[in-house]
Amino acid sequence: MATNRQELADTVLSGSAEPCCGFIPPSVTNSDEGADVLEYDPERARELLAEAKVTDLSLTAQVRSSDQAVMVAIQNYWSQIGVNLDVQTIDAGLWREERANGALTVTLVTWSTLSFIGVEFMASYFYSSNASQRSSFYSSSAFDGYVDAARTTLNEDEAKEDTIAADRQLVRTDFATIPVVWPKTPYVLREGYDGLSILVNFHHKDMSKSA
Predict the structure, then answer these.
(1) Which helix (H) or strand (E) holds 61?
(2) Whole-prediction pTM value?
């Protein structure tokens, strides 16, 4: 609510990312295509802090050098709602160690897996039995229940519904993570090929060789 994702994607990242509307990106199965981009409303964010009687909130963000520009932008957005964010750039090795120990109060993580199944994309990091190993330290019986249901049903519509419910539980109810942007990876097609519309789908859906 305090971060202008569209502006960040367009300016700091020069259009090489899309603002998030959930955790699962649109290139992965059962993403929540109908969801709006996570809201930017600094006035409402200030009201929520006031309602919670939070004042003079100061946080420390430790990031790798590759994430510094994005975190500095977030620092600026958060300052507009009265949150002081101290951004520290640390060595990648130290960052991995601190992350594993759960010592990072605020940081940035780019998450990707070898699975293009939405529920597994989330579960690999946030399912209770995986959380401590992945340093998310998240535990939610509601989230796990949606994941279990999506994994076991043979009905594709039900799997999509449960996957979306898990995403919303994670991001919009528990606020276990705050997705910012989905990076876009550029590819160059060889001459004679066209139609590569889903850039990170290993099935190369909709790609064909032109005549």
Answers:
(1) strand 57-63
(2) 0.83
3-state secondary structure of 30: coil
Count of C-beta atoms within a 10 Å radius of residue 38: 17
Bridge partners of residue 209, in order along the sequence: 193
198 and 41 Cβ atoms separated by less than 8 Å: no
d(CA 18, CA 109): 16
For residue 8, name the pLDDT band (cuts at 50, 70, 90): very high
Instruction: Count the alpha carbons within 13 Å of 203 in the hemisphere toward its beta carbon.
Output: 9
For residue 31 the two structure tokens come to: 């993403």
Token code pair at residue 143: 């989230």
Which residues have C-beta within 8 Å of that of residue 36, sequence separation ≥ 6? 21
pLDDT in tens, 29-57: 999 988 999 999 999 999 999 999 999 99
